[in-house]
Amino acid sequence: MVDKIRRTKIRQILNDGKSGAELCVKGWVRTKRASKNVAFVALNDGSTINNLQLVLDAPKIDEQTLRKISTGASISAIGVLEESQGAGQSVELLVKEIKVLGEADPEEYPLQPKRHSMEFLREIAHLRPRTNTFGAILRVRHEMAYALHTFFHKKGFVNLHSPILTASDAEGAGETFRVTTLDLNNVPKNDEGHVDYKQDFFEKETNLTVSGQLEGELAALAVSEIYTFGPTFRAENSNTTRHLAEFWMVEPEMAFYDLDDNMDLAEEMLKYMVCHALENCKDDLEFLNKRLLEEEKHKPQNQRSEMSLLERLQFVAENDFERISYTDAIEILKRSKPNQKKKFQYLIEEWGADLQSEHERFLVEKHFKKPVILFNYPKDIKAFYMRQNDDGKTVAAMDVLFPGIGEIVGGSQREERLSNLEKRMEEMNIPKDELEWYLDTRKFGTVPHSGYGLGFERMIQFVTGMGNIRDVIPFPRTPGNCEF
After folding, report:
1. What's the rounded Cα separation, in Å, for the pair 198 and 195?
2. Where would I find the Aminoacyl-transfer RNA synthetases class-II family profile domain in this sequence (predicted)?
3. Tens digits of per-residue pLDDT, 260-274?
4. Number of domains the chain is built from
């Protein structure tokens, strides 16, 4: 009988379940407390952060079945929905029939109802989605991906599937993962003693993509407005709370956009995503907000955030972003108290410095008290493809800075002038013969165009309030770690 009634998701029951309805629910046991006459089971099926309380008439349940209903076990139950007699929930299911689908031995199941550290949960990433925190993060991550696709679709953008395997290094930094089918125990060499890539699968040196940008530009110069959304890879040996070896990037590229158009789009997109989260992830965000407030209590006063998670999200949704040139930002930072009193870890002494997260957060959280877009950066600290300004010193680049996280979006107007692009590539020792296809777009019908990149996990960090980027992706890839 248990399997003959169609399952109803717990989210639907809690939202609009009617008292007196006979329902079938399936999920995983969070907690069970039992007395001689009654047992209460908190059931969760992942559709919501909230549990459904099942009320079991203990004497009517087979003793062996009752014993198998433990934290982590999966069950199916049929019962009648009633208004709850106790505090903590509006409705509960009075169970008539119950079946254990899968047991979870309490002696072995690692997610018993107690507080677990983030470090411990990373070691059991295959089970951590069953916790409240990571269930919430997965649901928020889904909503943010949906919001992105919806935003760009409404604006008439085309979604481009850029390649994951590529022979180019878009950033020119050399931090790529090599891809090969060669026998690493007997690597073939050519006459010069170098690796003979002619014997490899693609007959040339190949790597995992670091960005879909260059291919995105090619498509934008044909259909005007595109965006990519996919995995990217950096072989950067960074063991920090802000870096991953595998992460997801959102990269729109737009023909006929200048730098101002680019900044307008980035601000509109970020506000759309934040507003979508506030509207569609209320329960999860309230839980994550409480979690963060509790976490902040254990920090020294000077390390606590001035705003709660929900306040930070409202802060972005309700404020126009401040736009300021890099040059003006440097002057503000040079005159700032943290710089003059040597409180910054990286002191700002002269124009040309590469801004760090501490500087970005000062501008956002202390000086302007709103999100900030910096533009017109020194060309020497930016990539070869960024459009050179008439001053000969700066490029038409922009970064969007958020509270608590610093840079969240980076982009630029692209250099559309062939001679300028070739000269810059020469200055940065980027071989033109490897990027002839890219240069062709500047030879044939070139136009002003712009684009930017949003690190999706950075955005999820901001929306969820998680302090470590390893906790907003299901299976983090970091130096020395490629589990699951």
Report:
1. 9
2. 138-474
3. 999 999 999 999 999
4. 2
